[in-house]
């Protein structure tokens, strides 16, 4: 374990300033964990035995924002770097499953660390030494997620911690300690008290983790409390030679086969969620899922709305799901028309990524599709270079141009669609004069 962690000089500056006048001050929580792991940090949180008013007095030479004064938190800006500083505190009861009813300031760092969620987040560092009252360093070394103290108490305080444990397991690749895991399953019903927005954040971060496959497979029953549609996929045998896994396992393996991108991971997670509702079996014992893409589209749209995703994300992700089962062709004409259907090159690229992931989770007999996907990627690159049109707004002529040729009313729209199809079929170049000339000839 390295004695000195490489932390920003601005943090050291604040620690030294507060300690220089007799107070204690430590970097605390997840950022210490990240520094120990050598991972990128996000928020910089300090904790001190100084009260908020004392912090403001000592640091009066800096810009200070009272971000959470009720709970003892102020934010100081040092060289444009925001650093949160919170007074040591003891939390009261959590009647709303999120916020303590009251907080009491304390002079004890250990009392403050006791209220943290997991041992790996209950570390404090003052630039010289790490305070590790709950063996968080050992758990980091052993890649373990463990609650501080009694896991039942920690999860009753804020049930979202149940999903946070899964998220840390997915992102860090750590295992969840047995007592902590047992409490998670026992108390999973408390997640019904948590807002959709908070659930969305943890679910999304779990999907983006490097160990999303194992996290979702092991803890689907917990996520099923807030996304019950997931449970239908569990152990659902596909009875089909094209698939070597049940629906959930196929889905989670597919997560392993794609990039860490929000839209792609969401589309992969939900692309087959309509399969159980679409299942039928032929007389030869083979399972079929006719219309499952449309069903998955409908179900996933409801889930994403319930999780309060923005409309742009919902539209993009569900469009990928709706068309994920298309038998794509590696020809420029076909891909031009595909982009017209999808609306953008970006959406077409994401559809290829989704189909690659889907293919990754299927039987090996479909490995020949990889070459087709590679060819389509090349075609997409060429289309971008040529700036070929794939929607009416991309045409280099507009309604006024067509109007000047003597067309009226519905004829104008029909002419523009006609020109678009001509461009998609590569019969005319997408430039203003060639398009006008082409329309004159046909007219």
Describe this structure in words.
The chain has helices spanning 9-19, 30-37, 52-58, 109-114, 136-141, 151-157, 160-172, 178-186, 196-207, 212-226, 247-256, 262-270, 275-278, 292-306, 311-322, 332-342, 345-360, 369-386, 399-403, 410-424, 432-442, and strands spanning 25-28, 45-48, 63-68, 73-78, 81-87, 89-91, 103-105, 124-125, 130-131, 144-145, 175-176, 280-281, 287-288. It is α+β, with helices and mostly antiparallel strands and 443 residues long. The chain has 4 domains: 1-142, Beta Polymerase, domain 2, CATH 3.30.460.10; 144-226, Hydrophobic Seed Protein, CATH 1.10.110.30; 228-388, Hypothetical protein af1432 (Orthogonal Bundle); 392-442. A hairpin with a 5-residue loop joins strand 12 (280-281) and strand 13. The mean pLDDT is 91.
What are the main properties of this structure?
single chain; 443 residues; alpha+beta; Beta Polymerase, domain 2; Hydrophobic Seed Protein; Hypothetical protein af1432; 4 domains; two-stranded antiparallel sheet; 13 strands
